[in-house]
Amino acid sequence: MGKFDQCEIFKEASLAKRKFKPIIIILFFILVFDIGSGIQGILCIPFISKWAFELLPTIDETMANGSFAEIFSLAAKMPPYVMIPTLFTTVATTIVSIIYVTKIERRSLASMGFFKKKLPMGYPLGYLIGGMIMILSALVCLIFKGIEIVGGKINYLIILYFLGYIVQGMSEEVLCRGFFLVSLKKSMKNKHATLIAVLISSLAFALLHSVNPGMTLLAMFNLFLSGLFFAFLMLRFDNLWVPCAAHSAWNFFQGHVLGSQVSGLESQSSFLISKQVGNKLFHGGSFGFEGSLAIMIVLIIGIALLVVIPKNMNKGGTN
Q1: pLDDT averaged over the chain?
Q2: Residue 238 is part of which domain span?
Q3: pLDDT value at position 55?
Q4: Where are the alpha helices (DSSP H) in the chain?
Q5: Are 227 and 145 in contact (CB under 8 A)?
Q6: Per the domain annotation, does 112 fall within a domain?
Q7: Nearest to 294 by CA among 76, 169, 151, 133
Q8: pLDDT recorded at residue 319
Q9: Which of 141, 125, 209 is nearest to 175 (CA)?
Q10: 314 within some domain
Q11: Is residue 64, in this structure, part of any structural domain at all?
């Protein structure tokens, strides 16, 4: 981790006016997440209420049959009029995270990885990386006969999903990497502080998805790996634009280019459909590609490359 310790992000973070112990940072992380999620929930009340009213007959029937697992699985079939506002309202978490970092820790946006000069190259590169990860995962699924690719069906909603995932992908990266990883790292004096921060923030990232429909142990492990992958993207390219874009492309390509579930949520409007035909281990079941051995293989290779490839640190002029 030595080559990552000198990142410009960490240098900026060292200028913070306030510093806290690791346990306090963890508590602040939980608080920021809860406040952001609470605001998001309030904003989505009209849409969720409409959906809940429509689901009442189905819920009553499944409860009468004692099938509580089926009730939980209904969350995977979130309609577009709920899913799209849910994506856009994740901006609440981004805003709360930035307020915490700039007003409580009193560190700069650059210390979160937001370098203006790195945006024009960083974001397109990140989006390309995220899309390729999903395409490679689909190819592995195809090789092991876990899926068949069939024609999909798109409509105007594809544009709203594309924009929505830009907002949503950024929100999780700002929270877990720009805020939590960096704050944890600067709160520790341990020589392995960077590695510890990467591991803890990646575990937290996985746990944030632990109640998603279709969750399995393999899916949870893959989410942890994806957290590592996004963390090393940030450290390798020394900015947050790359993982923000990669995360957004990851979700959009998974759900609306390849037509798989996105963290257990069924996709609406996709260029292609990944029809599950083989072993669950190679298509991820109801959780989608993220719950498969295919993406585990691709992520392990990706993480290894990010760690091993030499890193040329940028010299000045990054703001």
Answers
A1: 90
A2: 2-308
A3: 80
A4: 8-13, 22-43, 45-64, 68-73, 80-88, 91-99, 119-143, 157-173, 182-187, 193-208, 217-237, 241-252, 293-308
A5: no
A6: yes
A7: 133
A8: 43
A9: 209
A10: no
A11: yes
What's the total number of domains in the chain?
1
Say if CB 244 and CB 179 are below 8 A apart: no
Rounded Cα distance, 285 and 192, in Å? 37
State the pLDDT confidence band at 315, using cuts at 50, 70 and 90.
Answer: very low
Confidence of residue 152 (pLDDT cuts 50, 70, 90): confident
User: What percent of the chain is predicted at pLDDT more than 90?
Assistant: 66
Phi, psi of 148 (to 5 degrees): -125, 140
The size of the chain, in residues, is 319
> For residue 315, is it within any domain?
no
User: Residues 178, 210, 22, CA angle at the centre, nearest 5°?
Assistant: 40
Q: Is the pLDDT of residue 316 over 50?
A: no
Burial class (CB within 10 angstroms; exposed 0-12, middle 13-18, buried 19+) of 45: exposed
Written as one letter, the residue type at 286 is: S
Task: Tell me if 152 sits within 8 A of 270, measured CB to CB.
Answer: yes
Count the Cβ atoms, other than its own, within 10 Å of residue 162.
Answer: 14
92-106, 122-136, 232-246, 299-313, range with the lowest pLDDT: 299-313
